Every structure is written in structure tokens, then in C-alpha cells.
Amino acid sequence: MKKIVALTLTAASLMASSLVQDAKNAGLAPIPTEASKLLKLIDNPKNPITKAKVELGKKLYFDPRLSKSGLISCNTCHNLSKGGDDGMQAAVGHKWTANPHHLSSPTVYNAVFNDKQFWDGRSPDVEDQAQGPIQAAPEMAATQEHVVAVVTSMPAYVKEFQKAYGKNVKITFKKVADTIGLFERTLVTPAPFDAFMNGDENAMTKKQKEGLKTFIQVGCASCHNGVGIGGGMNAFNVVAKYKYMNVGDFKGDANGMVKVPTLRNVTQTAPYFHNGMIPTLKDAIKEMGRIQLGANISDKQAKSIEAFLGALDGKKPYVKLPMLPATNDNTPKPELN
Ligand code: HEC
Ligand code: HEC
């Protein structure tokens, strides 16, 4: 009896380890468990992560006063309580303006793992990226001068910059964006998938494991891979045309390449695709099969893949709502126009 149990266990663990191997061979990679390995993956050598910088970056991320109206922060469109996005088809910013290209907000969780940022990959990293939305007219609509004036008007902010970067810090627009970016680097969400890949066979359910197999067999991992389970640039409309291509004017980068979205926490970030026209995960999976792989994904396969995607729902880092320094007479006033 004992022997049989032992044998079955070995067979089961062999199967699990071969699935891990298949996933690795397909290019899928886990978030490392070891803190030092993870730090190496997410840190910015040019501006290393420290507690003081991350705390300050968090305040700036949540501070709507960086925007022209005083109402819109990064968290407005990338809501950390809601999967790191806004649930809109096209993002809505300053003066209730929808994104002019009908682009939806990608999640900021795990964005650090992207090779490039934005749907067309036009920015190399989260620090560079953060400069965009603050100044974009349909988003936060602020000038660089506005941002510096807001931050330097509040002595508590100036003190925090000094604490983070030293007494002689020069508070520039770039420094603000770099600090927000550094906070974003900490927004990683290890999931059951990672525990499974890192050796805990029972971290994923049977259905999720089957879904992972389907995901690999059908070919999804040829683009959704790496630690981000996405994050590279890839061709779009490979075998057929996306059925809502006519909504908005987005065509990808100069070569028609599109940033492959991370599938981490994807169950929380509907609606889907660059223009948010696909309401459910099941439809997104089927449309992907049709346009990217020329595969007719059955309901059963879609359900199986969806189960696997559930194993990418990660544990969010604990983010304590920051208390922001109070505005004073020197702080620029909100402007709604
Ligand atoms: C009005 C809504 C809005 C606001 C405010 C906003 N964003 Fe975004 N964000 C978007 C949209 C829309 C995109 C995609 C735009 C594109 O690809 O051209 C985006 C893209 C991103 C990306 C790229 C993610 C990826 O997967 O490519 C990151 C990171 C990001 N924003 C962080 C920020 C930060 C940090 C702030 C605050 C400084 C901010 N956003 C403010 C809507 C917003
Ligand atoms: C040839 C590369 C490629 C393949 C293969 C591929 N994808 Fe994608 N996937 C992309 C790109 C690029 C996008 C972004 C498309 C857009 O938004 O316009 C995307 C978007 C998605 C989205 C929407 C995510 C979001 O946040 O909006 C899901 C879900 C998805 N893919 C799942 C899958 C599944 C499941 C498979 C296998 C059936 C698959 N993909 C195969 C490249 C690929």
C-alpha cells in the first residue's frame, strides 16, 4: 500500500515537473521567490530603490495636485485598488476628455517587467513613461513648471526629496517622474503560477494546470512570455484582422508592432485590447486565437485557458494610503480649463 502511494506521488511530481519544464521551454518565467533575485530584476541601477524614494514616489503617484485641475493623479486611471487600471474602454482625463486614439489604460502592476512601455512601445521604461501622462493634454494636462512649483511649494515635500536624494537635491520635473517610476517598480504581484514554477506543485489547481498546458499547446506563450507573461513587442492582426480595428486610429508602432499586454491579473482588467472593445476574458481569448494564431478556440479550450489565467492573479504589495502634505498660499491653484 505504502509503495503504491509513493509510486503515485512520484508519477504526479514527475508530471508536474514536466509541465514546469514545458512552461520554461515555452519561454514562461516566474517572479523569483528570493528577495535579492527579485530586486535585481526590478531595480534601476541608475537610481537604486530605497525606502525613502519609494515612499515619496508613492505620494507623488497619488497626488492629484500634479495635474492642472488638481483632480487627476496616476491612480485615477491606474487605480491600485482595482487591478491597476480604470475599467474604461478609452481612458478619461483632463476636462473629461477621452483618449483621442481610444486607447485604454494598461495596468501598472508588473509594468516594470515590460521591455517597453505604452501600446506602441514608444517609451523604454517606467521612469521615462511617467513624464508622458503628466504633460498630456487629455490626461493630467500639466506643464513641467507647474509640477515643480507644486512640489517645491510644500516644505514637507522638499524635506522628503532631501531625505531621499540628499540635502543638495535639485527638484526637477525629471526627478519627480523618476521617483514615481521607482515606486512603480515595486508593484509586482507574485501569483500561484509563480509558486508552481518555483517548485510548489500544489500551488495551482488541476484545472489551472490543464489550462497552462492548453495555453502552451495552442501557442499563446509564443508572445505572452517572460516574467511579465507579455511585455515584448509583437505583430498584431497576424492571420486575421481584429474585429474592432476601426475603433480609434491605433495601428501599433512604425512596423505595426504592438506591446503584448501582461496577462498577470488580467481577470481584473476588463475591458480588453488596446481600445477596450472586448468586454470579457473569454472573448479576448477567442479573438486572440482567431487573429494571432489562426486557431478556432473552442468554448472548452477558452474556459481552460481562462482557468490558467486565474493562476496569474497575484498578491498585491501592501500600499498604505499616503497622507499628502497640505497645500499653502504658494501652491498653484487648480485650473479646470
Ligand atoms: C487619463 C488617464 C491616465 C492618467 C492620469 C495616467 N495614465 Fe498611464 N496610461 C493611460 C493610457 C491610456 C495609457 C496607454 C497610452 C498609450 O499607449 O499611448 C497609459 C500607459 C501607462 C503605462 C504603460 C503601461 C504599459 O503596459 O505599456 C504606465 C506604466 C503608466 N501609464 C503609468 C502612469 C503614471 C505613472 C501616471 C501618473 C504620472 C499615469 N500613468 C497617468 C492612462 C492614464
Ligand atoms: C503573435 C503574438 C500573440 C499571440 C500568439 C497571442 N497574443 Fe494575446 N496579445 C498579443 C497582442 C499584441 C495583444 C494586444 C492586442 C491589442 O490590444 O490590440 C494581445 C492581447 C491579449 C489579451 C488582452 C489583454 C489586455 O489587457 O487587453 C489577452 C487576454 C490575450 N492577448 C490572451 C492571449 C491568449 C489566451 C492567446 C492564445 C490563445 C494569445 N493571447 C495569443 C499578442 C499575442
TrEMBL record:
- Residue positions annotated to bind heme c 2 are 220, 223-224, 288
Which species?
A: Sulfurimonas autotrophica (strain ATCC BAA-671 / DSM 16294 / JCM 11897 / OK10)
Q: What is this protein called?
A: Cytochrome-c peroxidase
- Cofactor requirements of the protein: heme
Output a single Gene Ontology CC term carried by this record: periplasmic space
Q: Which domain of life is it from?
A: Bacteria
Q: How is the cofactor bound?
A: Binds 2 heme groups.
UniProt: heme c 1 binding residues: 74, 77-78, 94
Q: Which Gene3D superfamilies match?
A: Cytochrome c-like domain
Domain Cytochrome c, chain residue ranges per copy: 52-177, 206-313
Which keywords fit this entry according to its UniProt record? Heme, Iron, Metal-binding, Oxidoreductase, Periplasm, Peroxidase, Signal
Pfam families under this entry?
CCP_MauG
Q: How is it modified after translation?
A: Binds 2 heme groups per subunit.
- Tell me where in or outside the cell this protein is found: Periplasm
* Molecular function (Gene Ontology), one example: cytochrome-c peroxidase activity
What range does the record give for the signal peptide? 1-22
Q: EC number(s) per UniProt? A: 1.11.1.5
